[in-house]
Every structure is written in structure tokens, then in C-alpha cells.
Amino acid sequence: MRGRRRRGKSRQLSLDQARRPVGHGGWRPGAGRKKRDGACAHVPRVRFPASVPLHVTLKVIGGLPSFRREAVARVVRAAIAAGGHRGDFRVVHFSVLGDHLHFVVEAAGAEALARGMQGLTIRLARRLNALLGRRGKLFAQRYHARPLRTPTEVRNAIRYVLLNARHHSAARGAVLSRGWLDPYSSALWFDGWKAAVRADAPWLRELAKEGRPTAAPHTWLLQEGWRRGGGLLGVDEVPGPASRAPSRAPSRAPSRAPSRAPSEAASGGHRRG
After folding, report:
1. What order do you get walking across the sheet with 54-59 strand by strand?
2. Which of 5, 93, 205, 256 lies at a 20 to 30 A Cα distance from 21?
3. What is the pTM of this model?
4. Taking Cα atoms as reference points, which of 65, 49, 94 lies closest to residue 212?
5. How far apart are CA 163 and CA 147, in angstroms?
């Protein structure tokens, strides 16, 4: 019977010794997954109380057609209606851009936000992949969320999300029609406009028949507190640069909609902001 090889006496290494590459696994310089350009740093999620809403941005991978079309917006509305009305997580406002989505949400805390966004992104990915006839990863990175702690921050976020189309059109030197609403957002169901919204266009009447896909706000800041940050919003206002909106967990409109709902995005849509 062969004898067993006796092990040498183990000894505790110093930190410097433990971090010295030995060529047989273990720590070594440059090891690990490389950071992708534009990816969010994996830092701990910010903590916030349930009384504070958040602006959430969800970016889509490159190489896909613009999301500024009615078929995509319909999927987003359905996903929000199915997964954005939880007791601890609610989607109150949204807008669909060319390659990303904006949401204003309420959550009971960081864990509830993570669970709620996980469920929402899974619904979106499955339904949008089916619509696009593809499989695999749809979103470029995990969502980014910024707590909105003051009435001014909340008002600016709502304004930026619901009026983002006017922001991009102004950046291109185009002017949208007075009173025009973005059909790829929850602007139709927002009750904080200075003047009553005209819903006489056929596409608006059809959209209104679907019913409100978003949840009613529960927090004071989203119910009424945001009005103290500057008053009611004008539907023709043009939000400022994206830097004024939460950034750190994007020709005239026709009077009625063809199969792709009316918007300046018929020529390709917005890609950033």
C-alpha cells in the first residue's frame, strides 16, 4: 500500500503575499470581467424612503429599430398595466424613446424597486422580443434609478419624461403642433396640465378607450407636492437639456395617427435623452 504524502505545515499569508500572482489561478492583475463602454458601475443601490419617487431609465441594446412606434408603445402599456400596479411598486409615468425607456415610479424601498423592475423588464423583454421576432438580451444594462426628493426634482422629472419629444424636436430645430401629446408616453392620462387636453383626434380617442395603463400615485410628492416646484405643466413646454433631468440605481405632428401613432418619430425616432 502506497504511503500517503505528508502535507507541509500550513501558514497564514500576508495580504501582500496573497495578492501575488503565482500562475496557477487565484488573483492576478487584469483578471475578471472587463467593463463595457457605457455600462453602469455595479455600486450599491441608493437607499430611499417609500415617500420618495424615482426616475428610472432603461436602455436598449444597439442595432435594433427605433422603439418610437405604436406597436412597441402598446407592448409597454400592457407590461405596465400587468406589472406596474403592485402594492410596493407602481409605475406612474412613462415615455418610450428610440433606444430607451423613461419611468417615474414609486417603491417601498430599494428591494421593492429591484423586484418591481425585474418583473417589469422580464415582461418587456419577452413581449418585445416576440414583437421583433428575435431572442436573447434586449436591455443593454441594468436600469438606472435616481430618487426625487424635492417638489422641484419631481416636477422636472415629470416634465422631462412626458415632454421629451418636444425636447428632442427643439434640438433638431423642429416645432411640434400646439397642444400635441406624445402618443408614446402617459401624457394623455396626466392630470397636471395647465389647460384641458383636447382628445378630439381619432388616435387620441382610440388611445383613451384603452384606459389608463399607469398606476395612480400614492406619495405626496407625486400626488400634489410636485406642484410646489413650479406649478402646473404646459403641454407645449420644452424641457431643458438632459442634464437637468435625473441622470444617475433620453416638423409638425400630424393631426391623426396612421398604423404608427402620430409623432415626429416617423422619420426614425429619438435615440438619446
Report:
1. 89-96, 100-107, 54-59, 144-147
2. 5
3. 0.75
4. 94
5. 20
φ/ψ (deg, to 5) at 102: -110, 140
Concatenate the DSSP letters of all residues of 187-213 into one string.
GGG---BSSPPP--SHHHHHHHHT---
Q: Which of 161, 87, 75 is nearest to 122 (CA)?
A: 75
Tens of pLDDT, residues 142-155: 899 999 999 999 99
Cα separation of 101 and 95, whole Å? 6
Tell me the percentage of the chain whose pLDDT exceeds 90: 56
DSSP code at position 12: P
72-95 in b/e form (b: 16+ CB < 10 A) is bbbbbbebbbebbebeebbbbbbb
C-alpha cell of residue 48:
430611499
All three cell numbers of 23, joined, read 500562475
Helix (H) or strand (E) holding 130: helix 110-132
Q: How far apart are CA 108 and CA 112, in angstroms?
A: 6
Distance between CA atoms of residues 236 and 98, nearest Å: 21
Other CB atoms within 10 Å distance of the CB of residue 27: 11
Summarised one tens digit per residue, pLDDT across range 58-79 is 999 999 999 999 999 999 999 9
| Contact (CB, 8 A) for 197 and 181 | yes
CA–CA dist 195, 37 (Å, integer): 43
Interior CA angle at 145 toward 66 and 114, to 5°?
A: 100
Q: Which residues pair with 94 in a beta bridge?
A: 103
